[in-house]
């Protein structure tokens, strides 16, 4: 199982599902510069940074001698709950990239496209049947996967809500700068991509919140106050989360993996339409080093600290 892309959103469910079916789940190591260099060689230039990292992770799993790699095809859960098209084509991308490289890989996949009647439940139960599971075993594995992922997500949301409430009880003079990192989870939580930003913020004494760690259902619903036409589910959740946390934060860091199409549109809309909080936009690409990112983060925190002391008028 590649430690990349939607693993950072659904990884608990995926691992639980296969373990319930009696399969051994193998994860490769977290991303580093070597992962990106391998993935970059396997990719075309138009692939985003996150896709290049994904191919680097698949390559590491092939080298580790796994029997198969799990690469789902995810279209979406409704008209305004879709994913970037790269997630739909990911199994073909992986198979073709490694066939050309002379490293053929066995892909285990499923397809979720609820607009076409291909539901998540049917997809997972169908995959379980291909592994020889009975209907009862398939239903049990899917239920366990859903429960484990939901429990994890709810726990993360509760912890962040508790943190926000505790910050609100502090006197203004004692309250640390609170920065919201808004990015796809495979950007914000990948140690090679978002880890640099999180570490830099914490080293500067800031309290870091993550837009993907709010209640997803509430965030999705709140996003419709911002737009009724944005089709991408994760971007919707991030926007809703920004609206939910807006009054509790001092600034926002928008992070994107170059050249992400959905982010290029959604982030621009956020910058134009969500006012009242300073926003730092960071676009990370295959050539970016950490020094430039750390310098921009440090400058952003300096500005926020000066503003908090009354040095700037609030816009």
UniProtKB/TrEMBL annotation:
Leader peptide range in chain numbering: none
Q: Which Pfam families match?
A: DUF2229
Q: Which top-rank group of organisms is this from? A: Bacteria
- Which residues are in the DUF2229 domain? 1-212
Q: Which InterPro entries match?
A: CoA_activase_DUF2229, Dehydratase_Activator_Redct
Q: Which Gene3D superfamilies match?
A: 3.40.50.11900
Fetch the PANTHER family from UniProt.
BIFUNCTIONAL PROTEIN [INCLUDES 2-HYDROXYACYL-COA DEHYDRATASE (N-TER) AND ITS ACTIVATOR DOMAIN (C_TERM), BIFUNCTIONAL PROTEIN [INCLUDES 2-HYDROXYACYL-COA DEHYDRATASE (N-TER) AND ITS ACTIVATOR DOMAIN (C_TERM)-RELATED
Q: What is this protein called?
A: DUF2229 domain-containing protein
**What organism does the record attribute this protein to?**
[Collinsella] massiliensis
């Amino acid at each position: 199982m590649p430690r990349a892309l939607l693993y950072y959103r659904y990884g608990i469910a995926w691992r639980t599902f296969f373990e319930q079916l009696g399969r051994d789940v193998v994860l490769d190591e977290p991303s580093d510069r070597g992962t990106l260099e391998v993935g970059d060689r396997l990719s075309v230039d138009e692939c985003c940074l996150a896709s290049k990292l994904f191919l680097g992770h698949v390559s590491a799993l092939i080298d580790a001698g796994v029997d198969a790699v799990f690469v789902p095809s995810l279209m979406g859960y409704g008209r305004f709950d879709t994913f970037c098209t790269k997630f739909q084509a990911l199994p073909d991308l992986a198979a073709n990239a490694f066939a050309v490289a002379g490293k053929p890989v066995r892909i285990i996949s499923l397809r979720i496209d609820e607009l076409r009647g291909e539901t998540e439940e049917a997809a997972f139960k169908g995959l379980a049947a291909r592994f020889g599971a009975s209907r009862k075993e398939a239903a049990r594995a899917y239920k366990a996967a859903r429960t484990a992922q939901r429990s994890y997500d709810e726990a993360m949301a509760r912890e962040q809500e508790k943190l926000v409430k505790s910050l609100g009880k502090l006197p203004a003079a004692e309250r640390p700068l609170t920065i919201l990192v808004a990015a796809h989870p495979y950007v914000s939580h990948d140690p090679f991509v978002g880890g640099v930003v999180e570490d830099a913020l914490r080293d500067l004494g800031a309290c870091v919140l993550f837009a993907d760690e709010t209640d997803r259902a509430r965030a999705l619903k709140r996003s419709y106050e911002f737009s009724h036409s944005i089709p991408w589910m994760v971007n919707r959740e991030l926007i809703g989360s920004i609206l939910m946390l807006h009054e509790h934060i001092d600034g926002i860091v928008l992070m994107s993996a170059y050249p992400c199409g959905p982010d290029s549109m959604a982030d621009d809309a956020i910058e134009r339409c969500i006012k009242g909080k300073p926003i730092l936009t960071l676009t990370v690409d295959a050539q970016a080093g950490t020094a430039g990112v750390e310098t921009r983060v440090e400058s952003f925190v300096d500005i926020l600290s000066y503003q908090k002391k009354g040095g700037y008028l609030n816009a």
